[in-house]
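Anyone opening a protein record will find just a pair of labelled lines. A complete record is shown below as an example.
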Amino acid sequence: MSVAPNLPTSNVGDQNQAPPQDFRRETDLYMPMTNIVRVLRRELPPHAKISDDAMEIIQECVSEFISIVTSEANEKAHREYRKTIHPEDVIAAMSSLGFDNYVEPLT
């Protein structure tokens, strides 16, 4: 019996194999849509309608924004030999990324 090269093999009885550690579905990387919709409903007039495509783009943008701010805050924590991100790290990240208008409301 020959096996095609570079193809994963599995045994018939291996039904409960765990996915690799770095396995994530693409949707796991985004903020939940229910949270996005809740914010949009709170901020927009009641009669406003948003297409599904627009909501998906907003979801991607919000998630990317959170990722960028978190990464910057994490770098600050690491420079200070800490593993935990503190609120001050997030505020400093917002400032260093040019979002100075948000610093005062966050503090």
Q: What stands out?
A: The CA atoms of residues 8 and 20 lie 13 Å apart.
